[in-house]
Amino acid sequence: xxxxxxxxxxxxxxxxxxxxxxxxxxxxxxxxxxxxxxxxxxxxxxxxxxxxxxxxxxxxxxxxxxxxxxxxxxxxxxxxxxxxxxxxxxxxxxxxxxxxxxxxxxxxxxxxxxxxxxxxxxxxxxxxxxxxxxxxxxxxxxxxxxxxxxxxxxxxxxxxxxxxxxxxxxxxxxxxxxxxxxxxxxxxxxxxxxxxxxxxxxxxxxxxxxxxxxxxxxxxxxxxxxxxxxxxxxxxxxxxxxxxxxxxxxxxxxxxxxxxxxxxxxxxxxxxxxxxxxxxxxxxxxxxxxxxxxxxxxxxxxxxxxxxxxxxxxxxxxxxxxxxxxxxxxxxxxxxxxxxxxxxxxxxxxxxxxxxxxxxxxxxxxxxxxxxxxxxxxxxxxxxxxxxxxxxxxxxxxxxxxxxxxxxxxxxxxxxxxxxxxxxxxxxxxxxxxxxxxxxxxxxxxxxxxxxxxxxxxxxxxxxxxxxxxxxxxxxxxxxxxxxxxxxxxxxxxxxxxxxxxxxxxxxxxxxxxxxxxxxxxxxxxxxxxxxxxxxxxxxxxxxxxxxxxxxxxxxxxxxxxxxxxxxxxxxxxxxxxxxxxxxxxxxxxxxxxxxxxxxxxxxxxxxxxxxxxxxxxxxxxxxxxxxxxxxxxxxxxxxxxxxxxxxxxxxxxxxxxxxxxxxxxxxxxxxxxxxxxxxxxxxxxxxxxxxxxxxxxxxxxxxxxxxxxxxxxxxxxxxx
Length: 721
What we know:
Keywords: TPR repeat. This protein is mainly alpha-helical.
């Protein structure tokens, strides 16, 4: 009996290739482990796709991007898929489902963010599988993984292999969509939409096909082909889409109709009808947003801002449109109207609302920081100009000017106060009406009119009538903060709040009163009336002018404004410590035919002959991509180590011009810093370090040069021996 059992066991071994053994393991692997693993993976994929939130205002991805955080909520299914697929690899080695199990392993691990392990599993299928269908499925998913990792070269290699394989219709669709996704991610929109055009006839009527038509329309929009885009937008509602996708397709189509017929009034091309449609009650913000985009395209920027304002006012609690509307308003103020203060305010509002997982979040954050800094520079310049003008007035004229400012401020406060009181009275009447209606059961505090009224009364009794502003608790304020408005308020409860709002009058300061004089004295403190205070004011203004001009050139790409600002800097502060870099920027920003361009270069050469900026402005051919820059560097470095410093420095200056576009040019520049330190003394060494830090602010050697600068500065403090 034992011998018979041993023979049966041997014949069913997972390493046996006997027909009976293979059949047993095929059956067991398929209907046990593989079936359960596939079901769990399918369930996870459906869940991931269903929970992915799309914003049709943005270019939709052709395939759902991998998100391991989002996939964690389906980790139970994915872990189970991995567990069951691993059983096949451990116990059914001779099964024909072995390569399929590795495909499931690879997919599940990639969804969980274990990309390297997942890629290895998919590569195993390519190496070991004898079934072309299984290999093609694994390779298609491997290609998609390379796309997500932005390894576009590897993805293209896989694509080229798959292109030569005979594929079924389903496999062809998957391959085409993955290839279209590859070109979309690499911003090759023409190739991407051309592949979509080939794919769409292979897909049956379905929400998936509606979505792909919408994406094709978006891609044609990016390519500036509105007629072709509208062809696809018109097909969206014919393929069983969700209503939101139909709505956005209609919005984009109307936007393109405006481009195709620019003389047609915006509201007459279909928007008025959509605003009246009751199905769009919660979507009016998006309609107004699209109308604003059309007005912006037509160059009607004020009308665009008006439509965007209507979009914000029409937004409901359930919408995510508001931050994108604020972004568009901010872009108009920056890019079209060059009004950066309101742009900053709208960017602030947008960044407080936009999801952090938005692909553009970091870019927008950087732009917001830039705008914050830009507005800060403008504010400093304006404030110091004003304060310096005030400091030049006689005491009598200065007092008159401050009295006028206090009067204007008080008038603005009074107007704001009256608007606030009117709003409070209206709210009190509304609360009283709500209190009159019967209500049974507990209420949330902010929905209980009697408790809200009581809270307002208690607040007024303790704090008086305060304007809604920063630091409202303070009794006395300075700078731009207003004085306390009203010390007490009459006691009131319930329905008496409306009377309290009207009975409490705005407390105006009397000119010449103690409070008035105290506020004027507070304002006088900020005026630079001593020589040291005036010097500090000029220094702040000088630095702000330079930083503003530099920002115009580097960040905002506005050479005309950069030239204007830096010319003002040189006019008012001709000996500024920033003049070396200011000369350089002026040389770059001025047009080639402007005679001032050469004069600024001459000043740079005359005042700073050894400056890095002089060499950067020197003419010379840029190095070819395959130029022997490394060989040149090694030769110059050998001059440095062998002590032939003058020869090396001369060759290095030539190399800095010849290879200025080389990726490692900062290594050449750092070597020059060392050579200058060896040959020209500590002062030139320090200047060379500072030059390096200004010219190559993103270099990986910046921390090292900071240490070098610190050593030089400490050495300068030591007594001479």
